[in-house]
Amino acid sequence: MSVTDVGARPKGFSRRQALKVVAAAAAVPVAIGGLRLLAPEARFHVWNGEALGAVSSMMIWHPNANFARRTMTRMLTEVSRLDAIFSLFRSGSELSRLNREGSISGVSRDFVTVMEAGRAMGLASDGAFDPTVQPLWDVYSRHFGSPLANLDGPAAIELEAARQLVGYHRIDIGSRSVAFATPGMSATLNGIAQGYITDRIADLLRNEGFEHVVVELGETRVLGDHPDGRPWRVGLRDQDGNTDRMIELVDGAMAMSGGYGTVFDPSGRNHHLFDPATGRSADRLLDVVISAQRATDADALATAIFVAGETRAASILANYAGASAILTRHDGTAIRI
After folding, report:
1. What's the rounded Cα separation, in Å, for the pair 303 and 256?
2. Cα 297 to Cα 28: distance, rounded to the nearest angstrom
3. 41, 46, 90, 326 — which has fewest CB within 10 A?
4. pLDDT (tens digit, 9 = 90+) per residue, 311-321?
């Protein structure tokens, strides 16, 4: 696995909000050779909206507008079904029930699959990725919910108490059951479930016969290449809508993690990506961009490597064939691994 210095981030950087596919569809669709004379010309069909609490979109290339529209409707129904499994904000979701009860049975295969993937990433990253960090979120949320909150963050004693409830290896997973080994544990799947849902939709679209697709549901997954034969061009946009880097992607996925995504204080020093080893917000990198075959892996790898830092990045990536990373340091320089 090679490491390449890719230089400094362009000046004028501000916090990025999301991965975006830019210039993917021209104003006039590109014709694909080989279509029969008088057959409907394939074109892009686009849905834009909100899903899983994030600005989302789907773009599919197909000659039949009605079929494309019906397909998108079915995909959105599937997104809603999966959101009802993984949401922290729906009291009846399988994740909320697990956090409330500590042990649940009769759960969906989707839930078991994601919990297994989260535990596997915890093992591959030596705990840098850990789905059971929700107790740390609770401590930070309570602390910064006070108008008199110390901007240095929660007290060490509070963080240590929460850390005692963190441990991916204490998740017991059966064929249709999930349980915590220690009372008081709780989980969040925000670092992996969006990737899983993105993969699920992309896989369903592939099974429907779609060959040129972009799915953005918090993470990005593309099927095939752009209809004109080139890679999809994926841009990283800042909060002002400016794209400071462009990455090419064919039949793969991409995810990005940075502490600026959700912050607890104006400085951004206290944010949502916690280091389970310390209980504090990770601060080794500015952000991480992952390219991988599947969005589930890209999503979790981005979090794991952001927390673990540059020195451990290559060893974590080695567990996932074909995955690569761009790490941006706090001084603005970046490396590709």
Report:
1. 8
2. 35
3. 41
4. 999 999 999 99
Q: Annotate the chain with three-state secondary structure.
A: CCCEEEEECCCCCCCEEEEEECCCCCCCCCCCCCCCCCCCCCEEEEEEEEECCEEEEEEEEECCHHHHHHHHHHHHHHHHHHHHHHCCCCCCCHHHHHHHHCEEECCCHHHHHHHHHHHHHHHHCCCCCCCCCHHHHHHHHHHHCCCCCCCCCCCHHHHHHHHCCCCHHHEEECCCEEEECCCCCCCCCCCCHHHHHHHHHHHHHHHCCCCCEEEECCCEEEECCCCCCCCEEEEEEECCCCEEEEEEECCCEEEEEEHHHCECCCCCCCECCECCCCCCECCCCCEEEEEECCHHHHHHHHHHHHHHCHHHHHHHHCCCCCCEEEEECCCCEEEEC
B/e letters for 51-63, b = 16+ CB within 10 Å, e = fewer, are: bbeeebbbbbbbe
Alpha carbons 305 and 317: distance in angstroms, whole number: 8
Model-level pTM? 0.88
User: Distances in Å between the alpha carbon of 1 and those of 128, 166, 314?
Assistant: 20, 31, 7
Maximum Cα–Cα distance for the chain, whole Å? 73
pLDDT given at position 237? 60
Reported as a single tens digit per residue, the pLDDT across 44-75 is 999 998 877 788 899 999 999 999 999 999 99
